[in-house]
Amino acid sequence: MQIGFFGAARQVPGSCFLIKTGDKQLLIDCGYYQGGGMCDKRNYDEFGFDPKNVDALLVTHAHLDHIGRIPRLFHQGGKPRIYSTGPTKELGQINLEDAHHIMLIHAEECGVEELYGEEDLEAAYKHWEKVSYRSSFEVVDGVIATFYDTGHILGSSFVVLELEGKRIAFSGDVGSTITPLLHDTEALPTNLDLLVCESTYGDRLHPEHADRKTQLREEIQKNFDQKGVLMIPAFSIERTQEILFEMNELIEHEGLVPGQVFLDSPLAITAIAVFQKYSQDTEMMQFDVPEGFADNNFFAFKELQITDTVDASKRINDAPNPKVIIAGSGMMNAGRIQHHLVRYLDDANNTLLVTGYQAPGTLGHDIAEGKSPVHIFDYNVKVRARVMKIESYSGHADYNKLGNWVLAAQPKTVQLVHGDEGAQKAFTTYLATKGVTDVSTPGFGEWVTL
Ligand SMILES: [Zn+2]
After folding, report:
1. Ligand 1 center to residue 322 CA distance, Å?
2. How far is the CA of 291 from the centre of ligand 1 (A)?
3. Fewest beta carbons less than 10 Å away: which of 11, 226, 300, 422?
4. What SS3 class is residue 265?
C-alpha cells in the first residue's frame, strides 16, 4: 500500500491523507486551510490526486480543518462514500453550512469563484453514513476500518485500518485530559505498523491548573460583585457547551448567582441541539450528573438568554449590569464578540475571559498578549478590562499525554502531521528519548510505501 500526504503536512491545517491499496483509494479527512480563511489560495489548489478515483472517505471529527474541503471533492467530480460517527456528521453539517455562508461573502470580497456550491454540500450529506465507535466494517474491498474515541470534541475519532496483513492508524486530533463532557482518549491498539499522528502541541506542556470550574465560578462571582460585563469568547462547538454545562452546575446546584447570561452565537445555539441529543448516549458522552438535577437540559438555566437574531443580540446592550456574554468567534477575529469588545473592552470594571488557544495574528492573541489599543472595525479600542485566561480549556493533548499515548502502543513507524516545524522537531526528539526512533515528518505530496 501507499500513503500520500495532501494536507497538514508540516503545518496544522488541511488534514488530508490518501491510501492506495490494489485498485482502491481511501481518504482520511479532507480539511481546509484556515490561515487565509475561505479565500486562502491553497483551498483552491489541486488536491494532488484525482477526487474521481477516491472510493471512500473516513472523517475523524467535525472541525473544518478536517472536513472543510469535502464538498470541494464533489465539486470536482468525486463521489466517495463517507463514514464517521453520528455527532461528526451532524456537527460537520452545521460547520459546513456556516463555512459556506462565510465563503460566499468572502468569495465576493476576494473576487474568486465559490469553492463549491449548495448542490455539492447536498451530495456530500447524501453519501455520508454514520458508524459507531469500535464496530469494525469493510470500508472498501479488503480494508477493515474501526473508529475509536479521541476525546477531542463530541464524536471525535482515531481510525484504525487493517489491510494487506498490516495495521495502521490515523490519530485525528487527540484531546487533552480534562473535560466535563467527553470520555478520555481510548488506547491505541498494539502491533501498529504505522501511526499517522497529530503533533499540534508536540512542544508544549499544559500547566497544572486549579480546577477550572472553580476559576469560572470566581470570575462570574467577581463580575457580579463589581457589577461589570464578563465577556467569554468561545469556540462554538464543544467549548461553549462545556462552559454552559459547568455554569449550569454552578448555578442550579451550587447556588451561584450570575446576573443575566447571554449566549450570542448562532452556530453554538444550533450545535446545542446535537449535544443535547447525545447527552443520554453514554458511548458518545460521559458526565456525572449531579444529584437532583432539576431537568435534563444540561446546557440551559433560567438566567440564560439565547440571542439568535441580530436584533436580540443588539438588545444585550440595554440589559443592566452585571451580565455575562458568551459569543463567538473563539479567537475574536470575527463574529458577534467583536461588537461587545468595542463596547465593553475599555472599561476597567469589565472582564474578558479567554478560554482557548489564540493563534498568532488573531485579535484574541493580540489582546491576550497585552496589546492596547486594538483596532476593531473602525475603532481604536483601549484594553482597560481585566484579561483573564483559563488555560486548561484546551482541545489538544500536550506532548506528555500524546507521548504516553503513542508509547503505550509502540508503533513500528510514526509519521507526524498536523503540527508546525518547532512542535514536530520537539516531539520527534521526545519520542526518540523514549525509544520510538522511526519517526518522520512528511511534506506535501510525499508518499510512504508500506
Ligand atoms: Zn480538531
Report:
1. 34
2. 32
3. 422
4. coil
Decide if 446 contacts 6 (C-beta within 8 A): no
- Residue 418 CA to ligand 1 centre (angstroms): 10
CA-angle at 46, arms to 45 and 50, nearest 5°: 160
Q: How far apart are CA 168 and CA 196, in angstroms?
A: 8
Q: Residues with beta carbon < 5 A to ion ligand 1?
A: 63, 173
- C-alpha cell belonging to residue 154: 463530541
Cα–ligand 1 centroid distance for 93 (angstroms): 15
Cα three-residue angle 184-394-367, rounded to 5 degrees: 175
* pLDDT tens for the chain, residues 1 to 450: 999 999 999 998 899 999 999 999 999 999 998 765 666 788 888 999 999 999 999 999 999 999 999 999 999 999 999 999 999 999 999 999 999 988 888 888 888 888 999 999 999 999 999 999 999 999 999 999 999 999 999 999 999 999 999 999 999 999 987 778 899 999 999 999 999 999 999 998 887 666 788 999 999 999 999 999 999 999 999 999 999 999 998 998 899 999 999 999 999 999 999 999 998 888 888 876 656 665 677 898 999 999 999 999 999 999 999 999 999 989 998 889 999 999 999 999 999 999 887 877 889 999 999 999 999 999 999 999 999 998 667 788 999 999 999 999 999 999 999 999 999 999 999 999 999 999 999 999 999 999
pTM, entire model = 0.92
Find the 95 Cα to ligand 1 centroid distance in Å.
12
Domain annotation for the chain: domains and CATH numbers = 2-205+395-449 (3.60.15.10), 212-389 (3.40.50.10890)
Decide: 188 and 149 in contact? Cβ < 8 Å: no
CA 61–ligand 1 middle distance (angstroms): 7
C-alpha 149 to ligand 1 mean position (Å): 13
Give Cα separations from 433 to 188, 189, 436, 437 (angstroms): 20, 22, 7, 8
The CB density around residue 84, as the number of other CB atoms within 10 Å, is: 28
Residue 179: how many other CB atoms lie within 10 Å: 23
Cis preceding-peptide flag for 322 (omega within 30 of 0): yes
For residue 198, report the distance from its CA to the centre of ligand 1, in Å. 10
Mind giving me the DSSP string for 121-162? HHHHHHTEEE--TT--EEEETTEEEEEEE-SSSTT-EEEEEE
User: Distance from the CA of 63 to the center of ligand 1, in angstroms?
Assistant: 5
Residue 67 Cα to ligand 1 middle (Å): 10
